[in-house]
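Structure in, sequence out. Go:
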């Protein structure tokens, strides 16, 4: 831990450096590949949609001793062979079974079979029908809220930072978080539920906050950059990212630890359910968001401004001054030991 803080101090002072901007094209290429993969995987494998989005029948069985998937799914399959049952433990003594949409007589038959198969009173087995319309309504509202959120975020950041390029870079980083997180859900087969969507939308706020913190330091470093001759504009941007790297990591760790605790409690103590769904999306999204801020949004901002006349003029002036003083045209920190 002591070495970590010492490393953080070296990054902040410029004694060490991670080449976020120097290797911007590499990071963006990797990010682009991940985004492309994350878009292709759902087209091939699809998503494991929860019952709220696909519709179907649901059975809740309480006060049982055996929560294994095989037993419950076998009971349902014997009565309704085409129901494709999926059993999820909700606690040590309860399970939830979701199936394709069943007719009323089929639901009653399955319920009776579960009562007999688990040898529990009738009141311990409940059945409900969930229509896909509710999930569609949630999806439409989520997309509408997402569009409004992105539009407001773009305008506010453009006004705050006084440049649309920072706003654009931040939004691109935001979309990377969204798409990669969706790709991870598709690859792993994690269930997409309304609670997972809520956690996912919450992650976007964290991602934006993390990006704004880093961008604020970059703006501080690049204020009146035209008059600076010690570092080029791109190097000033890179310094700002390095100075906030440890803070970004610490913020992410502090956020992930309680989420991981909730996830652990949800899985091993309370069983799968709302806690697991929301904490899982938060856990994945927070990690992706931290990486996106450092390796996508910030380097992209430097590239967006690289061809501005003022930036090119300042970088050329720094280069000429270094050559005049017999100094290599690279900042000393780029080759410092990390």
């Amino acid at each position: 831990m002591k070495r970590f803080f010492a490393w953080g101090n070296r990054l902040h002072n410029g004694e060490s450096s991670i080449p976020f901007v120097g290797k911007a094209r590499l990071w963006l290429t990797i990010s682009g590949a991940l985004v492309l993969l994350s878009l292709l995987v759902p087209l091939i494998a699809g998503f494991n949609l929860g019952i709220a989005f696909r519709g179907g029948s649901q059975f809740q069985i309480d006060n049982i001793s055996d929560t294994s998937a095989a037993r419950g799914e076998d009971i349902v399959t014997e009565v309704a062979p085409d129901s494709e049952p999926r059993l999820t433990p909700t606690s040590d003594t309860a399970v939830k079974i979701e199936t394709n949409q069943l007719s009323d007589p089929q639901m009653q038959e399955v319920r009776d079979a579960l009562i007999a198969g688990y040898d529990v009173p009738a009141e311990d087995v409940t059945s409900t029908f969930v229509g896909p319309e509710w999930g569609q309504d949630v999806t439409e509202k989520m997309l509408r809220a997402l569009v409004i959120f992105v539009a407001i975020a773009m305008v506010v950041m453009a006004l705050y930072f006084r440049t649309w390029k920072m706003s654009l870079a931040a939004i691109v980083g935001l979309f990377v978080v969204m798409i990669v997180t969706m790709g991870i859900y598709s690859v792993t087969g994690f269930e997409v539920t309304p609670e997972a969507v809520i956690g996912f939308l919450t992650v976007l706020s964290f991602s934006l906050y993390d990006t704004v913190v880093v961008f604020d330091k970059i703006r501080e470093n690049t204020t009146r950059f035209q008059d600076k001759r010690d570092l080029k504009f791109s190097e000033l941007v890179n310094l700002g990212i390095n100075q906030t790297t440890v803070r970004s990591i610490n913020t992410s760790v502090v956020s992930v630890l309680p989420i991981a605790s909730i996830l652990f409690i949800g899985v091993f103590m309370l069983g799968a359910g709302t806690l697991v769904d929301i904490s899982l999306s938060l856990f994945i999204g927070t990690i992706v968001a931290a990486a996106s801020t450092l390796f996508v949004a910030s380097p992209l901002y430097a590239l967006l401004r690289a061809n501005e006349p003022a930036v090119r003029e300042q970088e050329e002036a720094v280069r000429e001054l270094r050559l005049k003083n017999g100094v290599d045209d690279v900042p000393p920190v780029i080759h410092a030991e990390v």
